[in-house]
Each structure stands twice: as structure tokens, then as C-alpha cells.
Amino acid sequence: MTRRMRYHCCQKALDPELTEVFINTELYARVSVAVMFHKLADMADLVRSAGENMNSLAALASGKMFLLELLNLVVNDKDLAKELYKKYSAIHRRKIRAWQMICVLSRFVDQDNVEKVTSSLHISIYRSNLPSVRQYMETFAIQIYLKFPLLVGQQLVPLLRNYNLRPQALSSYVFIAANIILHAKEEIQSRHLDELFPPIIPLLTSHHHTLRGFTQILVYHVLQKLLPASDCGSSFTMSLEKKCFEDLKSYLAHNSDCARLRASMDGYIDAFDPMKSSLPAGIFTDRVEELEFECVPATLMDRVINFLNDTREDLRCSMAKDAVSIKNESFRTNEDPKCTEILNSNEGELLIPLPKDISYDFQRKISFPKHDMQEMASTSFWDNKSSYISLLDIENEDQLLDNLLHSRSVVMEKLSASRQQIILVASLIDRIPNLAGLARTCEVFRAAGLAVADKTILKDKQFQLISVTAEKWVPVMEVPERSMKFFLEKKKKEGFALFGLEQTANSVPLDRCVFPTKTVLVLGREKEGIPVEIIHMLDSCVEIPQLGVVRSLNVHVSGAIALWEYTRQQISQ
């Protein structure tokens, strides 16, 4: 395309209604390019409708070239092909930008490049990606298969029947298939239903709760739209298949859990339009100023995951309340002859009701070192100046809970004052389960602190589920990777010894290492370990002796073992 033609397209392409919104933002250039390629696609359509035209041919060629180049990048570029990355990171941002533009370029998919396009697309869908990135892949795929319906049976059906695919990939294919059925032209809609619906149905029984819930929502919408309501009196003449689908539809419509899940989606599927979602106006106008990240709307998968996490939290709270009720019930007078007397208030002794033949060994839920027990005794919610309060007198559960919470807050103040002087530096770690596990380990062994690259992970649902509130009790400090050297130099000046948990030529086996009281322990990346420039700053590297073939342990497990060894040495001193 000539420079003059490019200028002419840019001059005419800008949609004032769209670009005015972004005129003073960093998105203006990207929006302008997206609108330009959308206009070029209009010109390229003239090749098919009105015959060949030099400008139209140039527009078509440029759009195809840009599309294939972008697809090649998302498959092969080191960052864009990465599967493990942080939400809102630079890599996350690049991935979203690339796939947003690929959606805009979907109109340039033609018979001569569709095989290359779908090959790159399925490689990307198979890989692990955040839902905010996957939604653009799914929109792009829906566009292709609506445009080339014969490929549905050739490509999409075999993929749906590959039940060994990752649940994340299967979820994407279910979303793609359901929307192809819902948005196909009327003359081929029934054919798509016959092809795609049978391989989707088994996924309703998936052990993966997110995939199962996701499939339930989409199947319900397909049944609602394409399975007309039948007369109850005609059930005797229905085929077995029709009866099964009628009952399935009824279950999904009336089951309270399915209804709540559907309600939490807030009309997402009804409002979703794959055609509009691939237009510049559809991509760049869903702006929520306070939560804006590359104009990305909330995804259906995000909504399902949030719903399931909230449901699990509700269930956990309900189970905790039941446990309290059962425990309180055991404190009441029991007339069972197998139980002993539970209270002798005249002698000031508190006896717990126990069956005569019960074992006196039991699981301890909370235990403290002996030297802490003496300090805690003076702060106990039992009044030492008077006789012990009878549990039977505390009939109000709220009063008992308040006392326990007060006792815990006092105890935690004592615990924070007696922390060990070891800091774990996990700034190189980006996987949330590992960071959450390390937070829990640091709390258990009373570490002085845990350094992470980004403290916003503390609000992540997955982090909170694994850490079980550990982040509330252990000091967590934010030390981005770029600030690690400064942080380590500062701790060195404060008298801390710097250790790294890494296998090096001079690393010391953990069982031979003697940790100073004031220690900083640096943990490496999940695969690459500790960078060389950080290793050179350390006083020593420690490795865990291994007997097996696999080279290393999971970083959370390694950190826990090293922290316990430090704790063991401090206890024995």
C-alpha cells in the first residue's frame, strides 16, 4: 500500500464518535489503528462484491499480512506465548492488546489463509491464559466458525470430544460451540446443534467444578432458545432423547443452585454479540474508569469463578457455625450414663464431660511454647482473681465468642513481640499458590516477615483460600524484583546474613548449614532459580540434599523445609 493511500485511509477512517472518547488518552493511537483496519476491511469486501480494484486488493493484502504476523507473534514470541504471568502485568497487557487487534482483523480471514489462522488459534486456546485474554480468542474463533460453517464438523467437534484437554481449554470450546449454535444462521442452526450439542452434554458431569458450572449455564441457554416448551400431556409420545432434554432443561431452570449461578451472570450471555464484540466500538467502549484495564470487560469465566469461590466461602462459614454449635452442645449436661459429672462448682474445678472409656490423647488445634504459656496466663479471659467461670453460665454464644476474640488479640500481640529474626524474600516468585503457602509457613514459624513483589496478591481469592488468613498475622512487605538489590544491601547493613536457597557449585547442604539469628533467606523463581547478580550478593547458598532423580523441590516446599531447619536451630540454642 502506498504512503499516500495509508494517509488517505487514516484521514477517512477515524470515527469521531469513537475516537473523541480516547483523544486525550494513551489508547488513542491503538483505537485509531483499529478503526483504520476496520475501514480497510470494508474496502477489502469490495474485492468480493464489485470485482478487483487496486486499492481494495491492497487493503485485503495488508490486512491478511498483519493478521498472520500477529498470530505468529502470539504463538512464538517469548512473552506473548508465556503461560505463567501475573494479572495486570506487562505481559498480560501485551497479550490483551494483541488479541484485541486480532479480533478486529477477523474480517481478513479468507479461504486461502483460514487453515493457518485456525492452527495458530488452537495452539493459543490450548495454552494456559487468564480469562480476560481467552475471551478475545473465543470471540475470534466464533467469528471464524460462523464464517466457515463446514469447519465446525472438521475441527471443532473432534476438539470437544477430546475430553483429556485441559479444563480451561474445554471451557473455551464449550463457550465457542454454544455461541455458534446460538448465533448461526437459521438454515444451518439445526445442523450445528446436531454436531456440537452431543459432545457438550457429557461435560455437565465433569469433576472440575468450574467447567461443570460453566457448561450448565451455556447448555441452559441453548435449551431455552432451541428446545420449545412442550405440552405435559404429550410426554407419552415423546422420544427418550426429548424426555431427557426436557427434564434437563427443567432441572437447570428450577434447581436453586443453578438459578443462583445464572442470576450472578447478570444477563451476560443474552447481551453477548460476537459480531459487535470484534468491532472497534465493541472492544474499546466498555470502559469502567476505576477498574479499567485495557477496556477489558468482566468475563463469563471470571463471574463463574467468583460465584463458586463465594459459594465455597459461604459453605465454609456454615460448617464453622455447625462446628461451634456441636461443640457448645457437648458442654451441656448429658444424662447419658456413660458420661461422668461435668462440673463441680463448689470445689472450683471445671470438668469436661467425657465418656468413661474415651482415650485421653487427642488432636491439638492450637499449641504454644511453654515460655509463652506463662505470659498468656495473665491475659486469659478467665479471671484469675476469682473462681473459674462455669461454661454452663456462659449461655450466650456471642459473649463466649467476644471473650475468645479478645483473648486471641492479646495473644497475637504477645506473639508478634516474640517473632524469629528471619525474613523470607519471595520477590522472584509469581505463582499465587506458592506465595500463599509461604505466607502460611511464615506465620506458623513466626518469621519476621515475607517479602513479595506485589502486595495486591493478598486480595486474590485463590491466595486467601490457601493462606487461611496467614497474611493477617505475618508482616508482608512489598519488594519488587527491581528493588531486591537495594533491599538486600539495606538488610546487610542492619546486621542480617544473606542466604539463598539454590543449588550452586559452592552451595552448603542444609543439614550442615548454621543459620545466624538474623537471617534473610532468598528464594528463586519456580524454574530458573536465583539470578546470578543476586547470588553474588549473598553470603552463602544452601541446598536441600536429595536422593531422587528430579532436580529440585517445589519452591514453597523448599522454603518450608529451610524455615523449619532455621527454627529447629533456634529452638536448640
TrEMBL record:
The keyword RNA-binding applies. Transmembrane segments: none annotated. It is an enzyme of class 2 (transferase). InterPro entries: Alpha/beta_knot_MTases, SpoU_MeTrfase, TRM3/TARBP1, Trm3/TARBP1_C, tRNA_m1G_MTases_N. Keywords: Acetylation, Methyltransferase, RNA-binding, S-adenosyl-L-methionine, Transferase. Residues 422-564 form the tRNA/rRNA methyltransferase SpoU type domain. One of its GO terms (molecular function) is RNA binding. Gene3D superfamilies: 3.40.1280.10. It catalyses: guanosine(18) in tRNA + S-adenosyl-L-methionine = 2'-O-methylguanosine(18) in tRNA + S-adenosyl-L-homocysteine + H(+). It comes from the Eukaryota. S-adenosyl-L-methionine-dependent 2'-O-ribose methyltransferase that catalyzes the formation of 2'-O-methylguanosine at position 18 (Gm18) in a subset of tRNA. Selectively mediates Gm18 methylation of tRNAGln-TTG/CTG and tRNASer-TGA/GCT. Gm18 modification can enhance the stability of modified tRNAs. This is tRNA (guanosine(18)-2'-O)-methyltransferase TARBP1. It comes from Forsythia ovata.
